[in-house]
Amino acid sequence: MNFLSMLDTTSAGIWELVRLAQKIKSNPRAYSKSLETKTLIMLFERPSTKTRVSFDIAMNKLAGHALSLDFAQIQSSKKETIADTARALCGYADCIMARLFEQDDLMQLQKYSKTAIINGQTNQEHPCQALADIFTMSEKGKIGHDNVFCYVGNAQKNIANSLIVACAKMGMKVRIACPQQYTPSKKYLDEPKKFSDVQIVHDLKSALKKADVVYTDRWTDFQTEQKNMKNTQLRDYKIDSKMIAFAKKDCIIMHPLPANRDVEISSDCLDCKQSVIWQQSQNRLYVQEALLLKLMEVVAKA
Question: Which CATH number belongs to the domain containing residue 295 in this structure?
């Protein structure tokens, strides 16, 4: 069993992980020795804060061991193939979490490994973040067929891909507020439309109407200077208090972090009472624990 893409995950599978995360959060002691003798290898080709810390601490809290390897430290940096790296590492670990650039490399890792593989992020998807976001929405009572999820900004980003699919599979109505050139790829629009109503709305005010969840992210990735994006069409999709007024009064505001304050989202929105951004960040820990328990098939022992 692997956790590679929200495209491969069922609504029942998402709910199972969310419920397990809630049990762990409510009673962490019950799971505190669940992964004794288990080892997680964490591969990092790209920078990481929350993913690295949350998986490391998750393994520690479950009494397992986590080994973090940056690509500069391993033979893949010297052109060893991903397949050979997978064959070698799976002999040491019970699970591998990989934060890579290319989804194809992740699939190669999965193909040649005998252990469970977790997608810690690629350019195409970020399912671990999406799972924590769904968990947070559930805690706030925002998951349901009458709830509207509104993603704002660059909807071609990895977290947008994962979230649009995940929210649709949970039955939520999905609104995507973005410029024409930042719409998701066909693959990440066709799949969610099988499960729910998904609309692309280029006018931000219209998209926010009746929104229960307002979600935005950095407009660019780590390789692009944010200052070069300030004069693009995305500036019309900034979330601030004036825009939030068009959503429901009890809507929640979400951002996966790191945030560029006063670029894609204003500081007053990041820090307001409707913001669940810090709860969202903390919940990464509990869903990582749930994932690790599920993939290593030790939940029944807890």
Answer: 3.40.50.1370
34 — alpha (psi -120 to 50), left (phi > 0) or beta?
alpha
CB 211 within 8 A of CB 167: no
Eight-state DSSP code of residue 239: B
Which residue range(s) make up the domain with 171? 141-275
**How many folded domains does the chain comprise?**
2
Residues 109 and 153 in one domain: no
Cβ atoms of residues 120 and 4 within 8 Å: no
Q: Indicate the average pLDDT of the chain.
A: 93
- AA letter at 58: A
CA distances from 207 to 22, 202, 264 (A): 31, 8, 16
Q: What are 206-262's pLDDT values in tens digits?
A: 999 999 999 999 998 654 545 555 557 899 999 999 999 999 999 999 999 999 999
Model confidence at 85: pLDDT above 70: yes
